[in-house]
Specification:
Layout: E1 3-10, H1 32-45, E2 50-55, H2 59-72, E3 77-78, H3 99-102, H4 123-140, E4 145-150, H5 152-162, E5 181-187, E6 190-197, H6 206-210, E7 221-222
Length: 224
Amino acid sequence: MTTTLVHVLRHGEVHNPQGILYGRRPGFHLSERGVKMAERIAESIGDRDIVHMRTSPLERAQETAAPLAERLGLTPEIDPRVIESTNKFEGINFGEGPMTLVKRPHLWRHLYNPFKPSWGEPYEEMAARMLAAVHDARDAARGHEAVVVSHQLPIWTLRLFAEGKSFLHDPRKRECTLCSLTTLHFEDDRLTQVLYSEPAGDLIPAKDKNAPFSAGGAPEEKRP
């Protein structure tokens, strides 16, 4: 059997002092710390057998991919299938976390179905597009390793699907923190393992790891 690894990398910290839910909006770039996180990724996995990279078209994802791509001498493929999810709350200031919604009753009409979810892109569609991109990355790197740079919710939805778990979840408990790696192991075309690690975890302030709408969590191994 041929073993292929696909590392799905979440982008680094974004400069967003106003706490905007930026979603797919252009113009949001890595912060100074986010650049350091991206550089840490290049240091951590830059010596691995990575022969293919693809990234979301959003600036923060491409900027996260850049140090690793330079080290590997690769040109990442822009793949719109790994872009951030759509969200009806995009553009709203979420500086107060979940209280933002509590204090805005006019937004409650979007919360009627958490299983879909009613406020954004359906989980099933998100998982399907992410899985298709991962399969293409696997095929491009057959027998080696690939990196796909994406965003928190699409990555987490992909992992829930891969592990056969319900899409319904608490956003505060996602194990997909900044510049974390969700690594899918394939034997030929069969997914055999899902591993999770945080190479840049020490660069994330503790308050941000545990804050609502963040994705803290200790590194651990998961198997489907």
